Amino acid sequence: MSARGLLSSAEPLATRYDLALVDLDGVAYRGHEPIEHAADGLAAARASGMRLVFVTNNASREPEAVAEQLTGLAIPTRSDEVMTAAQAAAELLATRVPAGEPVLVVGGAGLRTAVTAKGYRVVASADDDPVAVVQGFAPELGWAQLAEAAYAVSRGAWHVASNLDLSLPTARGFAPGNGALVGAVRSATGVEPASAGKPSPTMYHLAVQRAGAARPLVVGDRLDTDLAGARAGDIPGLHVLTGVSTARDAVLAAPGERPHYLAADLRALLVPHPEPARQDGWWVCRDGRARIAAGALELHGEPIDPVDLVRAACAATWDAVDRGEKVDPATVPDLLR
């Protein structure tokens, strides 16, 4: 397949790659609840020699708090194994803003700590003449803080967002994410913000550099952030179907958001991954078969591993799209639902 297609691995991913860059919400946990097989899968990956860094677009919490939550969910984690969007935003600030300058922080404690650690003077009002506004999600944010950000940006302050996620998974469902709040400031000012979080690969590259890894693997549940960041950073990405993006989403993914590997959950780190191959007009992955005929996706087989049918469907659809053929989304079912 093309470079935008699925990859294969004859050995478990935990031994092929030396570092897993693991997303949190939808991968390691959901809200405050554990995800089935997450703790066991990660523990076994560690036992195989794979190191872990948890890379999150959440900028509201300190790395220590994230590590504590993971440890409480039977995923023992040190604070230096957490890379947050707050840390990435502070690094992005440093590319243009000298240390010591005033920066308006609109976000939680994690963002304030990261900006302070880079040597900036944190302010709370546009009247303090900040040279930049750094915005990250925090559940306590309200109109007053967003208004201060808009005032400062309108006066020329550089607007840096920790991430642009429109939604945030919680135990009760999906809630507005940082991207939705950033959108309020964008609408008020007409200024497009810079973003440090996924899908920018900045956090991935910082985490790889920190770990000194040679063969990293991104593990995420969102195609538009986790896997798009993997593609943008030229890092293989594993899409686990425990969070936001579904198997159907993967089949219909734009080229820049396609995963390199697909799996039901984090046990996928412990097994080889097959690559679909073309046979007699069908794309075949073990017992799963798929093809595009007259713009419609056709599926055949009941494989032992249902993900094999998804892999075949991805291969058939991506190949057709890359050749310029139109595929009717209505013919792609809700696989694995």
From TrEMBL:
Pfam families per record: GNAT_like, Hydrolase_6, Hydrolase_like
Domain GCN5-related N-acetyltransferase-like: 285-330
Name under which the protein is recorded: Haloacid dehalogenase
Taxonomic lineage of the native organism: Bacteria, Bacillati, Actinomycetota, Actinomycetes, Micrococcales
